[in-house]
Sequence to fold (405 residues):
Amino acid sequence: MPKIEVKNPIVDISGDEMANVIWEKIKKELILPFLNIKLVTFDLGIINRDLTSDKITHDAAYAINKYKTGVKCATITPDDKRVKEYKLKKKYPSPNGTIRNIINGTIFREPIILKNIPKFVNHWNESVVIARHAFGDIYKSKEISINKKGRLFLRFESFDKKQIINEHIYDFSSPGVGLSYFNIDQSIKEFALSCFNFSLNRNIPLFLSTKNTILQKYDERFKKIFDDLYEKKYKKKFLQNNITYQHRLIDDMVACLMKWSGGFLWACKNYDGDVMSDLVAQGYGSLGLMTSVLLSPCGKILETEAAHGTITSHYLQHKNGLDTSTNPIASIFAWTRGLLHRSNLDKNKKLKTFAENLEKVCIETVQSGFMTKDLALMIGPDQKWINTNQLFQILSKKLNKLSNT
Ligand code: NAP
Ligand code: MG
Fold:
């Protein structure tokens, strides 16, 4: 069987522990036998990050900007314990944070839905995709403790001193706390662009939630920036594609989330996205079925990964020569979603079909009863499970068969 030609490279970022063992298997058994593709590989394993003083992470991010498509394995974000374990020169920042800052995109979290895997929220039959505006708000706030009687202000002073705004907040007659935070139009606009582009790419409606009834300047700015962009740039395309954009109050939106059956993109402010992405992930059930996509404001640069970490507990078993039943599906979907993006950019139909087939094979395999332990446990004690190697054998066989027809 001839391999499918892929004209342009994709950036392949390898990582740590069990996730990396799975990553190498995906390449060797499910990608490279089928595609003639150039992988521009960066080893972001913690040892190499330390050797390069984290330069490799920056290089990888710039390469994604250059080649427009990257797929990333889970990596260790070192804490004090990891610094000791690997004798690291320093406690490096999260690679995901570094890459996000360079690509300047938005992260979209999306579950993979399998009919026979029970969900905590039974009627979520389609994905709820969460986009989190990961800039500003409480994450860049300043807080103070107040222990004396006195007056609290919010003050702005222009650099030329020509404008001074002093907003009186509260007169304290007993102890308390105060807080101030900010956001900037540019960042909100880039967030909005990423969201509109994601919606269009995937043909799903978009909802933005805020509390603009209370924050009539702050949250209203988010709404206005989204509304203006929609009117100017996206309305026509949305109507052509039969999808909608709407702003909703956050309280109304959480009620809809529980009522509806999924099938939409939810643009969340920073804190809401932090909380809601965990709530929604739990509602769908398994970390092993959650994917994560980073999309640039222009919609052209995309990086994908599984939402789970490096699965340390399974790696310890693996190192002791034991077979593990680790779920590779979210990592495989990182590859397929990356390949789909490449196929869209290059207008490569064969590549598109291949990526869709690989997703289909994963879904059909689990739905016909062959799955890893994490998923079997969700069905119940009578559900049989297989180990990762056995699952790969089935996937590879089915993919071969499908690719030959
Ligand atoms: P984790 O690697 O996601 O694993 C937590 C637990 O979830 C595992 O012990 C396992 O449970 C289960 N699990 C997760 N993925 C699974 C899969 N594919 N198949 C089967 N079970 C799965 O999170 P963590 O243990 O908190 O973090 C480990 C390391 O990953 C940390 O160093 C952290 O920095 C890093 N991390 C990286 C990323 C990233 O690169 N995006 C994200 C999160 C964490 P059982 O042990 O019960 O089987
Ligand atoms: Mg969180």
User: Anything to note?
Assistant: The mean pLDDT is 95.
